[in-house]
């Protein structure tokens, strides 16, 4: 490709609404162009990256035995009504009506349609296992789309769905996809982790996320540096406390803590480690009648160590706490006779249900609020100052330094961006849609399913979040818009430069290298800045002066300095760099 | 690919709603699966064809210097309001609202979005010409979708848009695309014609359709067998009549024609050629006020030769007849005092506007209705029996035998399916959206535009309409789902068959041939019928008996008999057939 025949359109300034670096840089480099909130044109430079991502995904999916199909973007509502998702999903499911007033949705995923295909196509266990995938446009009507391709409304996703005759076979299909995903992410050339994930709303009980490591990621990943244990912090399990509860050594005492409404402030005032304090969180669950009106509200008090964070997913799994909410200040004051910041489990005015984190259950001599403004209680002990807790559970997020569940050492935490997900779905969809095949026992059985997604347009954004510097993006070779850029300086004035540039360009094309020759005859500074912004991984600069001295300059995008090379050696040098 | 790892799903019966052969065969062959009216899953066998079509289109578009982008499926209404199409387009434009109540459309084409890109990206004439294209999902909410992929609601289209600095340059861009389209359609291996087309609603004044020739096509194509003249019958020009009007030789006479309400019946009764009769067509045009209420209706009488058909597009171009409709029976009876079937221009009760086809204007001694039930008039002549016509125009369709406008002989007519279209748009969209660049005179100028479509999912259907027999489809090599199928008979029982089949399979794969090995161990009859239905162009059958006799069977899909070949020669035979 020659630059004059391509569309290169760089900007000095990032758009005002761009909050994250990938959004800023991809817009400045002319890779994407906003059309509406969360809706982007994929411009030529960006589309090249997307197509390379698609090609790698397609190749590895095919290699893993998955079969490509394409399901419609506009899907009839009937199938979505069979699973109840037409009604249950929130407004992120874009619902539309056609000219005849019939209901449709724009696909956010395709479980319903693919299950409909399976129940028509796969009649016998002999046809199984099968895995159908598509690389197709999706739409999720996010309330607040932002971050460019990181959280768009319209996006491209690879979604695959496996159909198996039983759980054992489904586990093999799951593992096959998991291995394929590893190959895919290895080929992308990104740092990533496969982490255990909570399966959230889609359901199922075995689920892993593929997270691209980036300090700007919105997910926290817990991992063990000594093993391959890794989990989303939402899912990461805390081991039970190591030992039994120490004996009480202090008497209970009410102390004035004026204005100190946080555990940190109280610990500082008392000169105690934060881990000796206990924080009180007040939750509520509502019981509703058929009309959806609240008929009863239950208030809950959660106790967590002062240095720990509550994990909402774990809390939601405590019996009775599914669908919980945080209590209002009014509810808190009604139950505790005190404003938040000084709450505790002792001397309650109204009954609450007490739920205690496992770490708190083994604490002695702890500090909590006194249910009286500007007062706390020290030296609190279960069994003496309040009853032994009856509901004890893992309620908190893992913290760095916790023991790894696999016994391989202490856990660390880093941030990541989810770009892939493998799910074991079980029979959730096949039961809802009565999708069966004839088993080897001659009876209809529900398909065991898995689903497997990769955010094709999200991946380039994640790659940029991981790989950039102050000058621009840094693409891995495999998904770079171009692998090599040739920058001739003063091509319009120097026949020698033009000839040498065209020669190298032709040689690289002949080798099948994805090379661009910048024949725009831009000023050297602007030209080089463009390519550093765009982030092409390998660059050759040729100029008249250099050629007279017998050198051209090679620089990898991460190199801090150029390497001077004889023109006759540059092809060999590039071949070595590209592994050709 | 091995069949056991693919999804082969053939049906004995076509679906009840399938009216055309491509819909029937593609459904029976498991290439497409209906999800809703005009909405199809592209199944693995069908998707392979679509991907090959896409690849050829992409390669030739790139070769012609067009640059690939992807524009969103869901597009904000604002741009469509700029051109007025949001309001003007009928219900085939699917309009939707997002969760915030903002208006969007699902793209049926992308003139607005691409013009928006151009006005932001192309600031100077130095950046022109540019041609941007995409291969992307489209949606048109057809009132009565049918014919499978021939007229779906959701479909894949390649749409390209050229931007030029002036008309001359735009003509070059148009010709470049026209040449690229010829290369594309040549590569598809289909019989086609590039025909002049009426540009219809999209506008513009230079426009050609690429029509795949098929007797089942919905378009009539007029062509000259001795030259490259070809036009859609909607657009095909009738040359002016050769000579002047002959002198009148007959007296006007009213004759009883009881029950003969058609020109054919009257001609038969009178023993005259149909070309001596004149048919009277009654049209109406309505004038409306701002509230859209009809305030005045004008009635028109059109005269056409009895053996000619009215051309609605030509009629619509007559001054005053834009937006015409056919008159109602009530309107006809009020104006003519007579029911349809016996109408004519003589003895009118009410004034009508008379429009006369050029052929009628040079007729003498003709026959028309008497405006009295069961009566016609013979020997009618202009200037004597009624005034000389004042509005004379080309109102009719070309018929076979008409002279070609290029003087190369007589015209013939065949049927075709439109799968491509090249348009010169001029400044229609750039003016509506005020899309300008800085010209070489330093002043803002509107882009000269062209647009160029190919129906990527329609093309396979057209290919099948052209190429099929009673056993199934017959794909050209370039877009066949597989190029070669190896059918081993009794593979499960014979090691020799298995070994020979696997060997040939491996050899063809090594050559890069798109081959499928049917390892399903089906009964021979069912297996061969499947592949004839699917229409793979080259087939090799290996069986135990044949191998013992030292032969395998090669058969091209169009061959009536198989060719026996020594196993050692089959690879060379295939290479010759495939041009390798």
The fourth-level CATH homologous superfamily of the largest domain in chain A is Bira Bifunctional Protein, Domain 2
Give the total of domains of chain A: 3
Helix content of chain A: 25-40%
What low-confidence regions of chain A span 5 or more consecutive residues with pLDDT below 50?
199-204
Main sheet overview of chain A: 9 strands, mixed
The overall pLDDT of chain A, averaged over residues, is 94
Question: What's the CATH topology name of the largest domain in chain A?
Answer: BirA Bifunctional Protein, domain 2
Named at the architecture level, the CATH assignment of the largest domain in chain A is: 2-Layer Sandwich
How far apart the termini of chain A lie comes to 20 Å
Strand content of chain A: 25-35%
Domain Aminoacyl-transfer RNA synthetases class-II family profile (chains A, B): 38-476
InterPro entries (chains A, B): aa-tRNA-synt_IIb, aa-tRNA-synth_II, aa-tRNA-synth_II/BPL/LPL, Anticodon-bd, Anticodon-bd_dom_sf, Pro-tRNA-ligase_IIa, Pro-tRNA-synth_IIa_bac-type, Pro-tRNA-Synthase_IIa_type1
GO molecular function, one term (chains A, B): proline-tRNA ligase activity
Keywords (chains A, B): Aminoacyl-tRNA synthetase, ATP-binding, Cytoplasm, Ligase, Nucleotide-binding, Protein biosynthesis
